[in-house]
Amino acid sequence: MSGLTVTLPDGKTLELESGATVLEVAERIGPGLARAALAGRIGGKLVDLRQPLSGDVELEIVTARDPAGGEVIRHSAEHVMADAVKRLFPSAQVDAGRSDHAEKFQYDFLVDEPFTPEDLERIEKEMDSILAEDARFERQVLSRQEAADLFRSMGEELKLSRLADIPEDDVITVFRHGDFVDLCRGPHVQHAGQIGAVKLLESSGTYFRGDESGPKLQRIYGTAFASRKELKAHLHRIEEARKRDHRRVGVELGLFHMDALAPGSPFYLPKGMVLYNSLVRFIQDLYPRYGYREIQTPQLFRSDVFKTSGHYEKFHDDMYWFEGSDEGEELGVKAMNCPGHCHLFSTTKHSYRELPIRWAEFSRLHRNERSGTLNGITRVRSFAQDDAHIFCEPEQIPEEIESFFRMTSEVYTTLGLEGLEMAVSTRPEKFLGEPSDWDQAEKTLIASVEGAGFSCRIKPGDGAFYGPKVEADFRDVLGRAWTLATIQVDVGMPGRFGLRYVGRDGELHQPAMLHRAVLGSLERFIGIYIEHTGGDFPFWLSPIQVLALPIADRHAPRAREIRAALVSVGVRAEVDDRSETLGFRIRDAEKQKIPLTLVIGDEEVERGTVSPRLRKSKQAMDAMSAEALVSALREANAERRPKPLA
RNA sequence: GCCGACGUAGCUCAGCUGGUAGAGCAGCUCACUCGUAAUGAGCAGGUCGUCCGUUCAAAUCGGAUCGUCGGCUCCA
Asked: Quick one: A526 and A550 in the same domain?
């Protein structure tokens, strides 16, 4: 038998017989590592410990210290959960698990009755005893026929169907621990005891392969860690996320109100409006520099415009329609700006000299979102976007995309959001236009993203129905990914609206069209931003920026003077002269997330100073003159600074 | 829309197996006039989401409905 060379991360090499497993490599390195090993990593991909190696490889042993160790633990916990469910509900059929969420795993079951919270407790207990049994996980390679026979004999119909999904030439493996066996490619821990602690989180209904016409399944979510301590820390983080929930924070900070009288439609309170308007103004201030001009189109349109755009057919059930005052007149409430913009473009003649035309609009849009999709302020029926459409010559597309990325970077830097990741979404099943145009547009997008220095992920079939799109995904402080900015090439609408411009050659040409938004839906952005910041907004966005705190009643007139001076330069300042202790009012200001408080007592009145205190700081700053404060804060606002004072 | 859970004061929640509601915070009043995250006392506040039903009696049990949450699906 020929040998193989394994190169370890520290550069050392080991010579082994061909067919040696990852675990055997770990054993050669040391017994401690062998005990702690959870999986191997070759070229960034996790491999099972029992997997035989072939050829020379660079191998890394993954333990619980490696973040990927958690994935292996949670993936193994799926099997333990399925085992526990089968023990308690022998008639249950297992479907499959998935653990590509952050720190969460799931498994779907076909059962007669949905799981109750009590069931989850029992299942979790059963899992604990399986962990205590500490059975070894074993890997077995089967032929397709053997696997089919196995699952047929077990009565696992869903598994047979999953088996059929596996591509022809893939190796079929099953994993066993104790009496439980599951179709799986791994990797798995060595023995159940390496899963230190499990916790089931919730259960919900789902469909086999997500198909509503297919069998209904019950999904259970759980999480697992190498130790109780890590599990506890994770549950603590979930609790922290709950505290940041925009629905809670939005109410606590008096930003908005949601009401059963208008499901999915926020009521903005004055403070929420400050945030909303500040964001809009921010974008509006950037528009002149990036060559956008703002327009406003009607809220109600005769349905013809949506028939022309294709939205009537595709989104009819998701829009609001009613009869107009004229016989047979059907009106639709605007759910998107593009048809109106296309129509407006078509009403006058355009020369290539005018292009690109960049039209922006902040109108409210209404979509009849399905009730189950509504979520706080992030998924609503009434919203506004920082929307714009660009009409340009096809050759100008790359330039426009680049400019869009520059604007996006500027916006997100100012907002303190970093680490955007780009992805291109390609042609979906239902689409307008010609496939060749799509291919061309997709290529242009990918090249532009890469040209702008970003790496580019592909989301196959995720494009809009009228064209492929680039999305900027943002990962918030809690590790959740959100799609924010997006730019889309439209290969359908210019043709449907018969858009034309006079080219250099005097002939008529069809313009290219781009849809784009930087913040996307303002309501959704605000929701995400609240959760990311926990309500600690940058100075320039804070609804109340400064709170003056007179120590005693005799200091209140001076506090009001200072407030007036600040307000006169556009700083949002208030006075809290309630007859409460200073400590109480400072605590209240902290809870209200006010960035700057000013303490004003005898000393400050006498010297014409203020004693500023920054949000979340343990101690006061040195006193400064009231005049210096006013000009510093005016500047902080003009420059949209994150902090009021440097 | 589908599956599941939930809905009690402005907020967070308690209220066991049916006997017509309770706390903390917030609010209001009074006293205190205070130096960097909770001064004290008092007052007020709810037809228990809504509708039907079971019962001598329903926040509590059953049904429907609306809404919310967690998922699925969808996202122009």
From this structure: no
